[in-house]
Amino acid sequence: MNAVLDFLQLHIEMVYIVILSIFLGIEVISRVPAVLHTPLMSGANAIHGVVIIGAIIVMGKAESDNYIALVLGFLAVILGTLNVVGGFVVTDRMLEMFSKKKK
Length: 103
Prior knowledge:
mainly alpha, 103 residues
């Protein structure tokens, strides 16, 4: 528990940035019309590859005994990968809706 509190105290600016980005994301997504929601979200999910690269960089620069950074980086890689794959699946399904049906 002390390791988590020490991590939060050392990186409090990053915690603020994450919290503000969450609020900004909620505000932006809530104002997008429903018609545009799926195409924008599928594109945003595909761009999520940036998170994967950032997580890999964080994991690469973390010290071997810094388990918090390693676990968070690992979770970011897993969740980012799921988001990218989901984005491509949704985009593929959307594009199938616009293709001509075979007779």
